[in-house]
Write a structure and sequence with these properties.
Largest sheet: 2 strands, antiparallel
Number of strands: 10
Number of helices: 27
Radius of gyration: 31 Å
Helix content: 25-40%
Strand content: under 5%
Strand order of the largest sheet: 1-2
Structural class: mainly alpha
Distance between the termini: 100 Å
């Protein structure tokens, strides 16, 4: 039996607990109050608290802030919006962005539970966390859809001005739209172009409030120095994956900010030239005066005081000019766009300039300019954007098409679904820079295992293709046909490098095929992925490979030019790296692969000659032997289609999956080898002889004359 506690002891216990708890609660209250006080102090010095700013004073004369503006320019407006998704009535001026905008209980620091945002494009982005509160206002007020809708209403062709086309302003500080890129479509995205998605940063610094102090709005530059060492001004930041010359000025060390500034200057020059030449109505821009673009009445190229006013607003926009002007403003009105989504802005500026140039008699020079990065960091490419609609990268593809898939495989031994990526991250290949993830050996689709003895093995994890000789054999053995096309996949460089040792191509019975190409004249250098593409064995000039290994991803001409000379198409071959082209290489040992009698053309042209011959025979065989004409489209899966009208051209509706071609065994083998060569555009360097052997044997199989290829 339990003993009963005397009542006086019980009461003492209650009073003691109450005393202790009240003290603890009081301490917690003081602590929370202290934190709230510190947060308020930081806030008071921020733009959100600046009661003198135009953002909060603009409506003083009107006496009220309209519902279309109150959400972001007043506290009551935002609170009204956050409750039901709309602002129901106008709001009196006099407030700023105060504590209750983000907090339901400012004293205790309790944030509003708001994690999704609908952007002007109509796209709803979910699972954002508390940064959704920031994005509600920093999303802009227009998008690709806004511009397209205005152009459709105008009903004029691209170069016809219309008085109904007025300038469309994205609005100010649209940081979230730029950061999310093509997800939000805040910029004007040209049809047929790919665009970067959300800018990928390192974990822990990939949201608004992890970079910006949520109260002062300032960025802690000390935290940036972990990676961006020695950089005191964010405008100077440029990191691995950005070592291409976007603005064409020859400087790949300047900050991304300066790349964008030069591109803006070029676009503005094109805007003015187009308005003069095509529209016949000169235009000027004033960043401080709405609606920003005005008629240049005296044609001096400057916004004079009597020109920069609403009554002189530009009224001669054509659709083409409106698109470019909109993107120019997108880049102008997010002053930190270089950090939020610099590559997205670069793409917008590049495409706008290119589009205007297409109509100019004297186009603005785009010499040396680059729109995107090398493939590993090209977030706008199909290799990374393919899964946008799915919302995740499948386990079948995540190893090579996401930032986290390969690390997950190497760490767990398993593949799994992954988040859609905007290109690779440093952590894709590095555990912690400069440490590189270790791969001891690589298993190829054929089952063969290889090891290049260095971190090239990491490259080979993805650049091995996804099919082999055995894939084709097994498909043919499994039925009597017809057969669907088997795709080796893209850039199978390692499979080609090892040749018959890993059986990446379809190797015809009774034929002997070349294995890994060991280049005797390389003197033990540049015979692995890393040695060629990253220069780690070079004892030539002591130049920096940093940008090359992370962005350019191709051998440096300075390593090759002394032996291989310039592009052989040059009239005076020499040793100038600036004139050197890998596509011009032809060692003396190379025979006339394609049998055209030309022994001076490059290896690349020899391979292209064989590809052309094989594709012609594929078409002839399909037409004459199978009675079903075939066409090939290298950009549309699964690449080979029925040529419905037999005209030899890719017509609308033909290069679609339901119209995919059905092969017999002989044609399947040849088509597989054609694709292997075509999807390894540098096979002429990695293992030209193996590629040539596969192509010639496929040609002969389809009826080509073996006498044309005595070397084989």
């Amino acid at each position: 039996m339990m003993k009963k506690t005397p009542i006086f002891l019980f009461l003492i216990g209650i009073f003691t607990a109450a005393f202790v708890l009240s003290g603890a609660y009081q301490g917690q209250t003081i602590h929370l109050a202290s934190k709230a006080s510190h947060a308020e102090e930081l806030w008071q010095h921020s733009g959100h608290a600046d009661s003198t700013a135009e953002a909060f004073r603009h409506w003083d004369e009107d006496g009220e802030i309209p519902t279309s503006c109150a959400k972001c320019h007043s506290t009551p407006g935002f609170v009204d919006f956050i409750t039901d998704g709309s602002v129901d009535s106008a709001v009196s001026p006099g407030t700023t962005v105060e504590c209750t905008v983000c907090h339901v209980n400012p004293e205790q620091g309790v944030l509003r539970n708001h994690t999704s945002v609908v952007f002007p494009s109509g796209v709803k982005v979910e699972k954002l966390g508390s940064e959704a509160l920031c994005m509600e206002c920093h999303q802009g007020r227009a998008s690709t859809a806004s511009v397209d809708a205005a152009i459709e209403r105008a009903g004029v062709d691209d170069d016809t001005p219309s008085p109904s086309l007025r300038f469309i302003n994205i609005h100010y500080y649209a940081a979230a739209a730029n950061q999310l890129g093509t997800v939000a479509k805040g910029g004007y995205e040209y049809a047929g172009k790919g665009y970067d998605a959300r800018f990928s940063h390192i974990k822990g610094y990939n949201a608004c409030i992890t970079c910006h102090n949520p109260h002062s709005l300032e960025v802690d530059l000390e935290a940036c120095h972990t990676c961006h060492t020695g950089v005191n001004d964010p405008k100077d930041i440029r990191f691995y994956g950005s070592f291409v010359d976007y603005d064409g000025d020859g400087d790949t060390t300047e900050g991304i900010y300066y790349e964008i500034e030069t591109m803006k200057d070029k676009l503005y020059a094109a805007i003015q030239a187009y308005a003069n030449e095509v529209i016949g109505a000169p235009i000027v821009y004033d960043s401080h005066t709405y609606p920003y673009f005005f008629h240049d009445n005296n044609r001096n190229g400057q916004p004079d005081p009597d020109e920069a006013n609403y009554g002189n607003r530009y009224t001669s926009f054509s659709p083409r000019l409106l698109r470019a002007a909109y993107n120019y403003q997108v880049a102008q009105k997010d002053p930190a766009g270089f950090a939020h989504g610099g590559k997205y802005i670069i793409e917008l500026l590049y495409d706008s300039l290119e589009d205007l140039n297409s109509k100019l008699n004297n186009p603005v020079s785009m010499a040396g300019m680059s729109r995107v990065d090398e493939g590993h960091f090209n977030g706008s490419s199909e290799a990374f954007r393919h899964w946008d609609e799915d919302g995740e990268v499948s386990a079948f593809c995540s190893k090579c098409h996401s930032a986290e898939g390969l690390p997950h495989l190497l760490e767990t031994g398993e593949t799994g679904t992954a988040e859609v990526s905007n290109g690779f991250l440093c952590t894709t290949c590095h555990t912690s820079p400069p440490g590189v993830r270790r791969v001891d050996q690589v298993k190829f689709p054929s089952g063969e295992v290889k090891d290049l003895g260095d971190s090239s093995n990491l490259c080979m994890m993805c650049h091995q293709g996804r099919a082999s000789l055995y894939s084709v054999q097994q498909a043919i053995a499994s039925s009597s046909g017809p057969y669907y096309f088997i795709n080796v996949h893209y850039y199978p460089a390692a499979a080609v490098l090892f040749g018959s040792e890993v059986h990446g191509g379809f190797e015809y019975p009774g034929k002997v095929y070349s294995g890994q190409q060991i280049f005797p004249n390389h003197m033990g250098k540049f015979d692995t992925c890393v040695e060629c593409h990253m220069g780690t064995k070079s004892d030539l000039k002591p130049y920096d490979y940093t940008g090359q290994m992370h962005s350019v991803a191709k051998p440096d001409p300075r390593d090759c030019v002394n032996c291989h000379g310039q592009d052989i198409s040059q009239p005076n071959p020499g040793s100038d790296p600036a004139k050197f082209k890998f596509s011009g290489i032809r060692p003396a040992s190379i025979p006339d692969f394609d049998g055209d009698g030309n022994r001076s053309e490059s290896i690349k042209d020899e391979i292209l000659g064989l590809e052309e011959q094989l594709l012609d025979l594929i078409k002839k065989y399909a037409r004459d032997k199978l009675g079903a004409p075939i066409i090939y489209d290298s950009h549309s899966y699964p690449y080979f289609f029925f040529d419905s009208n037999g005209n030899g051209a890719i017509d609308p509706g033909e290069n679609i999956y339901p119209n995919r071609y059905l092969f017999d065994a002989r044609l399947l083998k040849a088509a597989y080898n054609y694709q292997l060569s075509h999807k390894e555009p540098h096979g002429f360097i990695h293992n030209a002889r193996y590629i040539a052997e596969l192509l010639v044997d496929s040609i002969v199989s389809l009826g080509g004359d073996p006498a044309n290829y005595p070397w084989r």
